[in-house]
Amino acid sequence: MNKPVDPENAPGPTESLDWLSPYFLGSYAENDELLEKVLVEFLRDHVYWRRNFHPEDTPPISVLAQHGPDYREFVARMKSELHGLSARLKQSVPFFNPRYIGHMASDLLLPGLIGQMITTLYNPNNVTDEAANVTLEMELEVGRQLAAMFGFSTDPASRPCAWGHVTSGGTLANYEALWYFRAARFWPLTARQATVEAELDPGVLDGLDGAFVKADPARLFNLSLDQVIRLRRQLYEWMGTSLSPAQARALARAIEAGRIESLGEAGFHNAHPELGQPVVMVPVTAHYSWEKALKLLGLGSANLVTVGVTERMRMDPDALHAALARAHDQGRPVLAVIGVLGTTEYGSIDPIHEIVSARQRWRKKGLDFAIHVDAAWGGYLSSLFRAADGSLVGHGELKKKFKYFPGESVYKAFAAVRHSDSVTVDPHKLGYVPFGCGAYVARNRGLTDFITQKAAYVFEGSEESGPVNYERRFRNLGQYILEGSKPGAAATAAWITHRVLPLNQDHFGRLCAGTVHNCEYFFEHLDELRTRLKGTARVILPFEPDSNLVCLAINPEGNRSLAAMNAFGRRIYERISATSAGDIRTREFFGSRTLVDRSALNPETAARLCDELGLDPASFTENVADPETQSDRIFLLRHTLMNPWLTGKDRGLNYLDRYCRHLETLIGQAIGNGQ
Ligand SMILES: *Cc1c(COP(=O)(O)O)cnc(C)c1O
Q1: For residue range 559-596, what is the model confidence (pLDDT) as tens digits?
Q2: Which residues of 615-626 are buried (b: 16+ CB within 10 A; e: fewer)?
Q3: Neighbours of 49 (CB within 10 A)
Q4: What angle do CA 148, 150, 152 make, to 5 degrees?
Q5: Rounded to the nearest whole angstrom, what is the distance from the C-alpha of residue 198 to the centroid of ligand 1?
Q6: Mutation test residue for ligand 1: of 172, 346, 352, 377, the one with most atoms within 8 Å of CB
Q7: Is the pTM of this model over 0.90?
Q8: Is any atom of ligand 1 closer than 6 Å to the C-beta of 431?
């Protein structure tokens, strides 16, 4: 978004939002009748379903018992507690309202909300089809819907064929990505060692120049995931045809016993001392779930390498290259590089295409890595890039819908997601589906070959001796994912949302486009606020927004100290925070906040920010331990513009204009109070 702004010609909200009318309950619960009618209809439907199941049975709850004192007492207690619950819930943060522009939450799309409530009546458990004979299939379809949105092939006849499933959220999906990568990428080393120890020789396998048993550990670790998947299949085929069943079973057992999942990190590295400590690379802006993932998997958070970002807060390809070169020189294998499609704090879009091309270059030098795209936030924006026929929308065509979006790098990043190995996306964020509904999608479902809780010791008649029947496999979903019992209702919420609003530019994408339009509107209209605040305070965008998240830094005119500016920002934040003291219902607007660390910025960006804010650069220092002044970081107000009603056609309904005026008032008051 780097065009000069001309306030006279700044875009007004051009489109009527009437098309959105039936999508949500609405900030005034305008669609109350619709919701009530549909809920009652399907509640009754459920009631008759119960009644029609063995209607010949006598109802165990007698009508008379329903009039007894114990019954009435229970109902009285329940109602009184429910009144209490409802009263407390009314202190909740009003995510549904356009005055809420804080965290990644908004109103809920009606299909998903209703779908989830109705499904809960049936209470399916998507851990296995025995507990979810209807909804497990829908979960797998959600996986295909999302995979197609990212451009992966979902044709079972194609190799690779993608798959995906629902998780409790993005955090779990991120854990799972690393769990799969670890399972697959260490596998060839174990398989080779077990084969050598058994004095067997399967010859040359896929991806290798010479005999498998002679392969160098570094080479085996640096196979691509597709190669590892093929190598394993070839080895098992060979075992099935060339070895006796007893020999094959023994080898399969030895491989399982030698895996990192069996031995643990320490045991595995003792068995393979030549392999260095693996690293995982993320941009400095990555979500904290990545650090948790390394701790949880025993990979060690010290082995999380943070890669620097550009002044747009996108992963810096040069910094990635340098980090890869360092790992290469130190002989440290790179388990995965994570790119973020919509960072949690700044909404920035990492150049996924640059990560993909870095991999192509490094492969030639013998260094390979898996690529995971953490699109927990921005994943649904991919629907904007998909035509109804599933093809990628051209950059020129897409640009026509917006003033600035999507820039060159952003477009290329979205187009390149299909070259990654797996993706995290959160239906409970930009999918407008109730919590907890995240999703994990893998480009190649063969990754699940490496995850099994039951070792394949039996060759005869098992899937190991022939092509895998994935449809059958995933009916035992709990065997292949991190979670166990899980709500089928979360999966149906996403499923029905994608059925009503298919994940392409004409349907779901329209909603996403609205969020980007809101962001562009905010971006351009900030200039009006700046003009009004001239001589009072400086308001800057520290980085131009990539999507629909905007951060602001505010400094009172004349203040040169970063610590004082941060304190000032916190005073303003107090007034728009959901957790400040006082009745939440009297708050005018809700925003959130974030910090940008000096260490995350290159010197030029740090200098530019100081200059734009009128700060003394010496007051912005690296690694200051003083938690009071926090002069090693800049405090920012952060706004997630996902509510679709932020910019109404009618100016009185324009919440972004109203927010800017409110901010002006708060700034004036904060300056008054500070003196
Ligand atoms: C929100 C988010 C996560 C974590 O997802 P949860 O659903 O909160 O577990 C991970 N990565 C990114 C980029 C996110 O925005």
Answers
A1: 999 999 999 999 999 999 988 888 888 899 999 999 99
A2: beeebbeeebee
A3: 11
A4: 60
A5: 45
A6: 377
A7: yes
A8: no
